[in-house]
Predict the 3D structure of the following.
Amino acid sequence: MTEFRKMNVFIIGIGLIGGSLAKDIKQLYPNAKIYGVDTNKDHLEQAMALNLIDLKSSYADLPLADVVVVSIPVDVLVSELPRILDGINHGAVVFDAGSTKSQVCKAVEDHPKRRNFLACHPISGTEFSGPSAAIQGLYEGKTNIICEVEKTAFKLQEKALHLFQQLGMRIRYMNPEAHDKHIAYVSHLSHISSFMLGKTVIEKEKNERDIFDMAGSGFESTVRLAKSSPDMWTPIFEQNKQNVVETLEEYIRNLQQFKQMLLDENFEGIHKEMDNTNKIREILKGIPLNQNR
């Protein structure tokens, strides 16, 4: 698509997700102009210094946009997305990167420019945040969940899908409710587990100073997600509360059963549980390890 060569791309929220996308777009389309919009002035300055963006901008410039990427916390996204759509021209495509989809889609379902919006969730990221966390090639081989694709104008779908293809992403289509239910298991629950394991160990460490000297790679990889931004994850848990609570109830039930087997000295049962769970290795074959959002 020749139109991408000189396109104006607005990145609203210059952190890991938006910044990484800016890096890739600059590499793919050197003549594209990247406009940065962020309420955090330090982030804008860092993004300029890191050459992630070409210009610091605002909503006032949105009529210039060909593509708008919105990578802000989902609670802010719900309130800001209608304003962003208000400001764009009729040929621009807007897509988000939010980890929840139901409330986001509902926020713009009756907007006059709903056809300009593509609801997306690129399942990628790290535990780090901010412009300095941006990574070249973050999206290569990652899955991008697209919801309610039929509500986006076909030509604008094509524009966004071409970009995703160039980024090396795999596309899956799903309705918002199914997305939120499934993502609670494979992403939201793992973050809660990581946060709570970190909390448990920190509380224990108050009395046993040597505990972190004994922490190996298994512990480090398990609590890695506990370094994720609370500003981003608290709204995710709030918006997906019902699904998260259901997954937690199942998870807690499994933990209680495991505890009871220990109390009953049912080590044969424990071995069987772990052996049955080992099949997750086959299920996860081919899925990138850092596909963690």
User: Anything to note?
Assistant: Residues 176-205 form the longest helix (30 residues).
